[in-house]
Design goal:
Blueprint: H1 17-36, H2 40-50
């Protein structure tokens, strides 16, 4: 995950193995979705071409 000041240490938030697996899958999906995304500037440019 990204880390930062809002992150929790593993010992502060006990999780079951099933919960950890779900979170790991969600983080992997988030990372994949970010790579497939486009920037706001690219989206704005596309919308301006479609709706001048």
């Amino acid at each position: 995950m990204c880390g930062g000041s809002d992150s929790q240490d593993d010992d502060q938030l006990p999780l079951t193995a099933a919960q950890r697996a779900v979170l790991d899958r969600r983080v992997a999906t988030l990372d994949q979705d970010r790579r497939a995304g486009i920037t706001w500037a690219a989206l704005k440019a596309e919308l301006e071409q479609r709706c001048p």
